[in-house]
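Hey team,

Filing this mostly as a record. A colleague (T.K.) asked me to run one chain through the structure pipeline before their review meeting, and I want the input and output archived in the tracker in case anyone asks later how it was produced. No errors, nothing strange. Just documentation.

Input sequence:
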Amino acid sequence: GLACLLAAGPLAAQTSPQPARPATAPSAALGTPAAAATGPWTLQRAVDYALEHNLNVRLTQLTAQSNAQVLRQSKAALLPTVNLNATQGWNYGTYVNPVTSQFQNQTTRSNNFVGQAQLIIFQGFQLRNTIRRNELDLQASQADIDQARNDLSLNVASQFLQLVLAQELVRANQTRVASDQAQIDRSKILLKAGSIPESTLLDSQSQLATDELNVVTAQNQADLARLALLQLLNIDPATAQGFAIEVPPLPDPDQEAPYVLDLNRVFATALTNQPQIRAADLRVQSARRSIDLARGAYYPRFVATGSLSTVFSSSQASRKLTGDSTSLYLPVVQPVGTGFIPTQYVSFAGRQANYETLPPQFFNQLGSNYGKAIQFGLQIPVLNGLQVRTNVQRSIINEQSAGVRAEQARLTLRQSIEQAYADARAAQLQ
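Output structure:
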């Protein structure tokens, strides 16, 4: 038990954390008859199967995958946000033309297209602290996977050995029953010969009844241990009629060997190996980052925004130049002798361009109505109902709670080591 707590034994080494598996349907987690009918189960096979099909382990893996997606999104928040918007509408009656900004009274169709990008330049380092906090949360969830696998491996190994012990007790009691039956047969022969009193035969029969009861009790314990192991393996007992285990080679305990360990050294080693301690410490660090994140709301927020836009209106007609209007030329004359001789001609009416009204041109309007804009926004928090201060105080309390849970995890680990050491000493002395 102590070696399992330190996660230093061969079993723990062979069940090192594996990459998270994709989630499957709940029905796929149940064992099949083939899984229980392919020969006796070794301890290592039982542990591997449990790690593959246990729902609690799979749940911790899904939690880690979810935290990985949260971290990915927080990193993407450093990039600008880009959006494209397009609208189309119809106006009836009097309205302001979005192109000419004049009042019109007619039915008009209009389209508006806008592309906008926004970049957060400064936000009190909240984006950076969010990324760091999410990194710590992901590491903590990965440590939770290790802890779930360690706990499951220890439980399966413990229950496997319980089943081995129960089956050995059944065989031991069955041997006693056979011995009692042989003793009764011998006592009957001796009783007929007059060598023993009848009370000796009755004592042997009483002992047989007691040992037969012990066989039934031991078999019930073995059945319960078998059921508990099947449940840990997530195998349906109804489909595991041929389930059997292979007894591992167990050396006889050396009662003469001293069992002396330095509990402080054992505890120090466990602190560096146990994933529940690592997860608790990571969550303390995550809570501290949450404090920095909450305090970031005290700082101003500086944002840059750029946009491209264009608009189309069916009321904006197009015109095409078709030519010039006719000009009237009048002579300017002056007297020469007895007659008048024109010396020059002056236009009386200037040239006037003639246009042809065309239907609204969609793409021509989009090109001519094209606009650009860039803006910088500064938001300075002044008073928000003490929301920022409350969030900071709550984050401080959460950090203190995480610290208490970390100390509690250390205390639980120390108590488990002390209990395992006491059990080992007691088992050696029995």
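Quick notes for T.K.: DSSP finds eleven helices and ten strands in the chain. Confidence is low (pLDDT under 50) at residues 1-34.
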